[in-house]
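Second attempt. The first submission of Aquaporin Z had a stray character pasted in from the spreadsheet, which I only caught after the job came back as garbage. Lesson logged: always re-copy from the clean sequence file. Corrected sequence (261 aa) follows.
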Amino acid sequence: MTSTKTATKKVGGPAPQQAPTTAQRLAAEVFGTFLLVFGGVGTAVFAANFPDSANNSLGVGFLGVALAFGLTVLVGVYAVGHISGGHFNPAVTLGAAVAGRLPWKDVLSYWGAQLVGGIIGSSLVYVIAVGGPDGFASNAVAGGFASNGFGEFSPGGFNLASVIVAEIVLTAIFLFVILGATSKRAPAGFAGLTIGLSLTLIHLISIPISNTSVNPVRSIAAAIYGGPEHLGQVWVFILAPLIGALIAGLAYRPLFEGRKA
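This time the job returned cleanly.
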């Protein structure tokens, strides 16, 4: 009787889904990070001030850039999040590993895939900018190419201490939202929307402070074309988000799941 039921289930039931391969997961991270950088940095470079900063009659401004970063994460999570987890951010990968959501052995390969995707994204933005009106690409580079910064390179002139605090706190908040939205106890199907909107909110808070990182790869990818001054400050936007992610990863389970991480 047992063998008959088993045979019937195998014949009539749906075919079991195979887990994504390592190559598929890494390809998803490359694509998702590319989408985030191409969409977010591209919006900042091409559309934030249009036709130019002096006559910004059609530009999307801070609000548009914030929405661009949030929307790229939202659509990326729904497109390939079921394959790789939809990190697109080394800080998210670190926080997920610390919280027990990702095997530690996958961390370095995820980081490598994210770096590749981010650099492809910013490089394509630069290639397109070169084909713009005379001086467009050089002006974009002179303006920092949507890079992050502190002091004279902060949009609002915020100092190093303020930028570090903002990046740590906002990255920790982002990780708390991600870990909560992807919990087994969370409502199914809303994680992408929640994560995308939270990233939009984070950008609305911190674009004037640091031009918003909370993502080391986003910062590296832009700084490559932002020039040596921005590359000289990128360490802040690698270290601070990772610290914020570490804090959230360690704290999430004891605070919200009632057990130690």
